[in-house]
Amino acid sequence: MKAAWAGALGLAVAWGLGPVLIPWLRRLRFGQTVREAGPASHRKKQGTPTMGGVLFLIPVVLAVAVFDRGSLEAWALVFLIAGYGAVGLADDLLKVVFHRPLGLRAREKLFLQLAIAVVFVVLAQRVAGADQAFWLPFGLGQWRPGFWYGPLAVLAILGSSNAVNITDGLDGLAGGAGVVAMGFYALWAWTHGQPSLSLVALALVGGLIGFLRYNLHPAQVFMGDTGSLALGAAMAGAAVLSRTVLVLPVLGVLFVIETLSVIVQVASFRLTGRRVLRMSPLHHHFELSGWSEERVVSTFWLVALLGAVAAWLS
Fold first, then answer.
1. Residue 144: inside a domain, yes or no?
2. pLDDT of 137-162, one tens digit each?
3. Do the beta carbons of residue 210 and residue 56 sit within 8 Å?
4. How far apart (Å, rounded) are the C-alpha atoms in residues 297 and 162?
5. Residue 274 counted as domain residue
6. Whole-angstrom distance, CA of residue 291 vs CA of residue 206
7. Following DSSP, what letter does each residue of 37-81 receive, concatenated?
């Protein structure tokens, strides 16, 4: 019941904050800078407020403070989400306020992400206790990683946060896929006796749905790195706490495909001088192939949903 209330709180707070936050960001001119190399159709998005990820991050903190303040598991995940949100916020501020096009330097960002992930994994090990076996996908049972628990968990967090960041390129794309992934974890945690994890996941689902009210095409606000890094970290953090780190690539197949599309594009161009795709990530390839933005997003949401079904059945 508390998880349901947390979801309702997340939806209400995110939905209610939109009319306050978006005009404020616009007045401060915290607008997105659209890449010259991106699709020409995106030029009209220039100046759309960014850093909208706070719309779904604030409700998560509130939900835990109100409904589950005594849970180490819940606060550990909130620490991870808020920490990565802060890194993303710093990155966004450097881009839009201080006009550093690339934001934080790569090594600065990596160091901060790594430090936060390591602290979270230490907390997660305390939550897990002796039961640190990872579920294997496709019904293959469980595996005890031993020494590899920490490195695999940290790698999952770093990979997931940056994969969502890559995917966040169309109105509603990352937010909708995030609803699917965190909805999976809300249900998984509830059925596997982890109510605190279910509460945090459902609060984030509610917040994301409220955020999508303003992020669907044509978007009034973008989540920015503030939201995308935090959302990716939330997915991986939920995977660590639910011991489904090795199932995460199945659940997040959309994010895996998007990331691989960038890797393949870069590798192909460096090795052969030719591009495999019209543009990477993959969602831009379909845009330049004539698909409308809404069609790309709805199709990719379907892929995310299929990944969630495959993960559940595995």
1. yes
2. 988 899 999 999 999 999 999 999 99
3. yes
4. 19
5. no
6. 29
7. TS-GGGGGGTT-B--TTHHHHHHHHHHHHHH-TT-HHHHHHHHHH
Asked if 202 and 186 count as a contact pair (C-beta separation under 8 A), the reply is yes
Both tokens assigned to 151? 């490195």
CB atoms within 10 A of CB 245: 21
- Amino acid code (one letter) for 313: L
Q: Kind and range of the H or E element at 194?
A: none
Q: Give the span between the Cα atoms of 89 and 45, in whole angstroms.
A: 20
Integer angstrom CA distances of residue 297 from 56, 167, 170, 290: 20, 11, 7, 13
For residue 168, give its domain range.
2-245
The mean pLDDT value for 102-109 works out to: 85
In this prediction, residue 46 carries a pLDDT of 75
Whether 314 is covered by a domain: the verdict is: no
Give long-range contacts, CB 8 A cutoff, 24+ apart: 146-150. 149/121, 149/125, 150/118, 150/121, 150/125
How many structural domains is the chain composed of?
1
Report the SS3 class of residue 135: strand
- Catalogue the long-range contacts made by 184-188 (C-beta closer than 8 Å, 24 or more residues apart): 184/251, 184/308, 184/311, 184/312, 185/235, 185/238, 185/239, 185/242, 186/3, 186/7, 187/312, 188/242, 188/244, 188/312
Quick one: tokens of 89?
């916020």
pTM: 0.95
